[in-house]
Amino acid sequence: MGKYKIEDFAIGDTVYHLSNTLIMMVVIDRYMHINEVECRWLTKSGEKQIDTFLAEELGKKDDLRPKIRQISI
User: Looking at the record's lineage, which domain of life comes first (predicted)?
Assistant: First the structure.
């Protein structure tokens, strides 16, 4: 499972499900008592989708940025 806990997410954060990094979602609510995060995203056809996920199922968008390594000669 993921490295994040529900406390790591805030409303407005851009996240992805660990099983599909291509779909970016926005956190619209957090349910602390059941450890779930509610997210919204748009399908390719422009339809709005809303679902809840366990916090451990999600990653943050910044995790997907390429890592820059500096090499000295």
Answer: Bacteria
